[in-house]
Amino acid sequence: MPTVHFLNVCDGDCSIIQHRSGRVSVIDICNGQTSTKRIIAETVRGLQINQYAAKTASLSGNYGMRDNPTEPIWYMKKLGITGVFRFILTHPDMDHMDGLKALCDEIGVSNFWDCGVRRDKPAFGDHCPYREEDWDQYELLRDGKSPGVTVVCPRSGHEFQFANKGAPTDPNDRGDYLTIVAPNATLVQSATDSEDPNDGSYVMVYRTCGGNIVFGGDAHDDTWKHILTHHKAAVQDCAVLIAPHHGRDSDRCYDFLDTLKPNLTLFGCADSEHMGYAAWNNRDLLHITNNQAGNVVLDANNQGIDVYVENLEFAKRWTTHDVTKTLNGSTYIGMVTKPVPAPV
Question: At 46, which CATH number?
Answer without folding.
Answer: 3.60.15.10
